[in-house]
Amino acid sequence: MLPWRARFRVPLYFRLWLAVLLAVAVLTVSFGWLWRMNNEQMPERELIIRNEEGDVLGQVKTRPVRVPGQGIEFQVAMKDGRTLFVQMPPRPRAPGEAPPGRPWNRGPGGLLWILGIVALAVAIGSYPIIRRLTLRLDDLRAGVERWGEGDLSTRINESGSDELAFLAQRFNHAAERVESLLNSHKSLLANASHELRSPLARIRMGLELMEEQTSPTLKQEMLRNIAELDQMVDEILLSSRLDARETDIGTVEQVDLTGLAAEECARANAELKPAQDGQALVVPGVAKLLRRAIRNLLENARRYSSGPVTVELALDGKYAVVRVRDRGPGVPPSERERIFEPFYRLAGASEHHGGVGLGLALVRSITQRHHGTVACESQEGGGACFVIRLPCDQM
């Protein structure tokens, strides 16, 4: 279940629109208040006009009107139907004395005072909202700059539930992927240079000791070292191609895992246990890569096993399952993930076992390119069990 904030996500454009509406509301309220203050600055007054006998000739209760330069005046309706205008001239001011009234009504600059106060109200009302929306943009920019400067461990805060939060999540995912690939390539190159030295040193020593009458044993050792180097180069190139997601890895077709596993078991002298009831295990994939994955597991099992090696096939829902069991020393639980790293060897393993430490790493890369998984499990009676799970639907 998604959190309620994710299920009721408010888009960023809508939030910006609400911020604009709020700013307009603040502007309207501020301008209305100032307009009311301007109109109410002179309260209503009652004006009565009498004659000499004291009779009321006209009476009105109204707000005086300010006439620029002439003071204020009142409009009075008389009883005989006439209208009189009663004017009160402005009070004489001393030289330099400011005119009466509020600051925004003094002279022709009064409107500027009103607009200035309104602008200040809009700025104060909208700044906290806009700043809160753009603050995460600043964090995103700073994180991208740090990551671009070489700090690949930089991650961005994923708080929120809008487009910025989604962008931060995708950036973190991409940054983690790039960091993992670069670390993998660095480890690959560092270990490749180290692993190449051993067979090269043996070949060099063999060439120095080679005489005209070279023994067959020495020749076989030389051929084995050369074959080991050739295998290492081939696996390094294949690993690089699998890591590059844009690289074409071959033609995807329907592959019969039962027939493929039978051929590899016959080649490695291993026992095959097909799926129950003769279920067909057909998966979409590249046949040569899937063959390589099963072959690497069989060679790894044969290399360390002191007993028979068994390959079991099964259908688990929409997944085809391949299990390769051996009777070797097994893999400690703490090492069952690391053995899939390039050039990683278990403690106690040495070069006389053969291999260059890329076989299991290639198995994981191949299964991942086929949208599957591979894992190492323990089994009763000792030994290890490597499990490949491949989807039976289209890639």
Verbal overview:
This protein has 395 residues and is α+β, with helices and mostly antiparallel strands. Among the domains are: 174-243, Signal transduction histidine kinase, dimerisation/phosphotransfer (DHp) domain (Helix Hairpins, Orthogonal Bundle); 253-391, 2-Layer Sandwich (Heat Shock Protein 90), CATH 3.30.565. It has helices spanning 4-7, 12-39, 110-148, 163-209, 216-243, 257-268, 287-304, 359-369; strands spanning 45-50, 56-62, 65-67, 71-77, 83-88, 253-256, 271-273, 282-285, 310-316, 319-325, 373-378, 384-391. The protein has a five-stranded mixed sheet, covered by helices on one side. Strands 3-4-5 form a three-stranded antiparallel sheet, with no helix packed on it. Strands 1-2 form a two-stranded antiparallel sheet. β1 (45-50) and β2 (56-62) form a beta hairpin. α2 (12-39) runs antiparallel to α3 (110-148). It is rod-shaped. The chain starts with a helix and ends with a strand.
Secondary-structure map with pairings?
Elements: H1 4-7, H2 12-39, E1 45-50, E2 56-62, E3 65-67, E4 71-77, E5 83-88, H3 110-148, H4 163-209, H5 216-243, E6 253-256, H6 257-268, E7 271-273, E8 282-285, H7 287-304, E9 310-316, E10 319-325, H8 359-369, E11 373-378, E12 384-391
Parallel strand pairs: 7-9
Antiparallel strand pairs: 1-2, 3-4, 4-5, 6-8, 9-10, 10-12, 11-12
